[in-house]
Write a structure and sequence with these properties.
- With 359 residues, the protein is an alpha+beta fold.
- Helix content is 25%, strand content 24%.
- The chain has a single domain, classed as Chorismate synthase AroC (Chorismate synthase, AroC fold), CATH 3.60.150.10.
- It has a five-stranded antiparallel sheet, covered by helices on one side.
- β1 and β2 form a beta hairpin.
- The chain is globular and about 65 Å long.
Length: 359
C-alpha cells in the first residue's frame, strides 16, 4: 500500500533518498538462470547518471551498482535480487535555504502535508535520483526481454517548440547515443542543444517529449480489463518524475480522423498477421497485437530555477527564494533511459504473466 513497489510478477521495490547514504531496490519474480551482463547494466546506469554532459546537472556520481543477493556465478537464482547504489557527491548545504520553504511546483508542500515531515535535501524521496533503482531493474528486465527478441528504443523527439517530425521508422537509432540530447537526427539535436544552453544561461528550464517504441513484442501481452497493456505503460510513464502526459498510437491526433481512416486493417505479413497502418500503437483491447508498440511521454520544465520566485514557507508567510545547487535545465537527455527502463519493466511483467494465462 506504500506505493514503492511496481509490477505483479516481475516486481521492483525501491528505497532511498537523494541525500541519504544510498539508494537501491529489491527485484522479486525474476526467473532463475538469467545471465546478468554486469557491463550492460552499468552502461544503462551511466546513460542516466548526472554529470555526463554540459546540458545536465553537474552533480558527480559514479552510480556504481552493487548486487547483494539473488545472483550466483553471474546468473539469477530465482530469489530476490537486492542491489545498492551509494551516494557520494551530495551537497546538502545547498538546500539549507529551503528548510522551511516550499519550492514552487515541487513536492515539498504535498509531502509535508501527507507525512507531517519532509527531507528537504534535494527533495528526499521525491527526487528523480530515485530512478537509479528503476534503471537498474529495467536493465535486468531488458536482458530478460532479449531472450524473446524484444528491443526497446527511446529518444528525445522534442525540446520546447523544437520537434523531430520524422516517423520513428525513418530514423537511424544508432545515432541517438552520439549526442548529448539523445536525438537520432544530428541536425535537430544541435538545435535542441543550443536551445537548452540558452535556457540554462538565463537561469531557466525547458521541457519536451521522449518518444519510445518496442519491437518484437509478441501478440497476447496484456491483462484486461484493469491491467491493459497500454494502461500499465501509461501508469509506468506517469510515475516518472516531471511527466505530464502520455499518448500511444495515434494519440490525440487520432481524434481528427474518421473511423474509416483510423481503423487498422489486418493483413498477412511474412506468414503472420499484421496491420497496414498500426494506428493502434501495437495494442488492441489492451492486448499486444504483434506490431511495434509506440508512444510519447511529455516532460514539464524542471521546477528548480536559478531565478527569484515568490512562494510561501511552512508558516504560510510569503517569501522570495532563488534556486541553488546543481540541477538539470532539461530532463530529456537523462529521461530517455528511464522511459526505456519502465517500458522494460512493464513488458517483462506482462510477458511472465502471459506464460500463466493459458495451458
Amino acid at each position: 500500500m506504500s506505493g514503492n513497489t511496481f509490477g505483479q510478477v516481475f516486481r521492483l521495490h525501491s528505497f532511498g533518498e537523494s541525500h541519504g547514504p544510498a539508494l537501491g531496490g529489491i527485484i522479486d519474480g525474476c526467473p532463475a538462470g538469467l545471465e546478468l551482463d554486469l557491463h550492460f547494466i552499468q552502461s544503462e546506469l551511466d546513460r542516466r547518471r548526472p554529470g555526463q554532459s554540459h546540458i545536465v546537472t553537474q552533480r558527480k556520481e559514479t552510480d556504481t551498482v552493487e548486487f547483494l543477493s539473488g545472483v550466483w556465478e553471474g546468473k539469477t537464482t530465482g530469489t530476490p535480487i537486492g542491489f545498492l547504489i551509494r551516494n557520494g557527491n551530495q551537497k546538502s548545504g545547498d538546500y539549507d535555504h529551503i528548510t522551511d520553504v516550499y519550492r514552487p511546483s515541487h513536492a515539498d508542500y504535498t509531502y509535508d502535508i501527507k507525512y507531517g515531515i519532509r527531507d528537504h535535501r534535494g527533495g528526499g524521496r521525491a527526487s528523480a535520483r530515485e530512478t537509479v533503482a528503476r534503471v537498474t531493474a529495467g536493465a535486468i528486465a531488458k536482458l530478460l526481454l532479449r531472450k524473446y527478441g524484444i528491443e526497446i528504443h527511446a529518444y528525445t523527439s522534442q525540446v520546447g517548440d523544437i520537434k523531430l517530425l520524422k516517423d520513428y521508422r525513418e530514423l537511424d537509432h544508432q545515432v541517438t547515443e552520439t549526442n548529448a540530447v539523445r536525438c537520432p537526427d544530428p541536425l535537430i539535436a544541435e538545435t535542441m542543444i543550443r536551445k537548452i544552453e540558452q535556457v540554462r544561461k538565463e537561469g531557466d528550464t525547458i521541457g519536451g517529449v521522449v518518444s519510445c517504441f518496442a519491437k518484437g513484442v509478441p501478440p497476447g501481452l496484456g491483462e484486461p480489463v484493469f491491467d491493459k497493456l497500454h494502461a500499465d505503460l501509461g501508469r509506468a510513464m506517469l510515475g516518472i518524475n516531471a511527466v505530464k502526459g502520455f499518448e500511444y498510437g495515434s494519440g490525440f491526433e487520432g481524434v481528427k480522423m474518421r473511423g474509416s481512416e483510423h481503423n487498422d486493417a489486418f493483413v498477412k505479413k511474412e506468414g503472420n498477421i499484421g496491420t497496414l497502418t498500426n494506428r493502434s500503437g501495437g495494442i488492441q483491447g489492451g492486448i499486444s497485437n504483434g506490431e511495434d508498440i509506440y508512444f510519447k511521454v511529455a516532460f514539464k520544465p524542471v521546477a528548480t530555477l536559478m531565478q527569484k520566485q515568490q512562494t510561501i514557507n511552512s508558516k504560510g508567510e510569503a517569501v522570495e527564494m532563488t534556486g541553488k545547487g546543481r540541477h538539470d535545465p532539461c530532463v530529456l537527455p537523462r529521461a530517455v533511459p528511464i522511459v526505456e527502463a519502465m517500458t522494460a519493466l512493464v513488458l517483462a511483467d506482462h510477458l511472465l504473466r502471459q506464460k500463466a494465462s493459458k495451458i
